[in-house]
Structure formats: structure tokens, C-alpha cells
Structure to design on (111 residues):
């Protein structure tokens, strides 16, 4: 049983204009984006410092880890997404029971 001790730093949704780019940048906290409609691209360093490129679409999400260099691009098809930025004493432990890590940052819905 895991007691998740964390704080939500920001939570928001966004409708985007076609072709928006953020990065390269790093974050001080964990940041999870969930794509509500459309498609985009994430470029993020893995655990070895190598940059991986991931296509994301509606029904998927991606995790950005503290200190991880990343860039994400909302292409013309990305219409809406939401994100939550969080951190805490046991976030690493909580994420260890998920499939999300620097080597596999994309969430795929199982429904």
C-alpha cells in the first residue's frame, strides 16, 4: 500500500493554435500531459541522456521528469490537452508501480 504524499503545483487545460513548440527545456517538478484531442510530438532525453522522439495522440499522455531535457510540439491536429504539475516526498515510489519512466514516458490508455 502506497501513501502518495505529493502536492499539485498546477493543473490546467489548453486549446492550442496550430503548430506550437515548447522547449528544449527542463522542469523542476513532474509534469504529466494528457491529449484530449489531436496529435503531437515529444522529444525527451532517456535515462542515458539520449533523445527519443515519441508521437502522441488523443487518449495518450506523457510524463516529463524533473531535470529531463524535453521539447514538445503540438501539430496542426492537436486541439486540446490538459496537464498536471506535481511533486512530493513519495512521487518516485508511486511512479515506480506504473509503466512511466524516462525510457518509456508515454501513457497508453488500456480501455
Amino acid at each position: 500500500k502506497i501513501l502518495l504524499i505529493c502536492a499539485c503545483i498546477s493543473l490546467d487545460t489548453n486549446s492550442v493554435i496550430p503548430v506550437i513548440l515548447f522547449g528544449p527545456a527542463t522542469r523542476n517538478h513532474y509534469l504529466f500531459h494528457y491529449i484530449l484531442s489531436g496529435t503531437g510530438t515529444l522529444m525527451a532525453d532517456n535515462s542515458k541522456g539520449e533523445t527519443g522522439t515519441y508521437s502522441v495522440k488523443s487518449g495518450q499522455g506523457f510524463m516529463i521528469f524533473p531535470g529531463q531535457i524535453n521539447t514538445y510540439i503540438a501539430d496542426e491536429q492537436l486541439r486540446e490537452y490538459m496537464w498536471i504539475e506535481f511533486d512530493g516526498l513519495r512521487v518516485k515510489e508511486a511512479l515506480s508501480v506504473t509503466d512511466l519512466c524516462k525510457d518509456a514516458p508515454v501513457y497508453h490508455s488500456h480501455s
Observations:
- The longest helix spans residues 91-95.
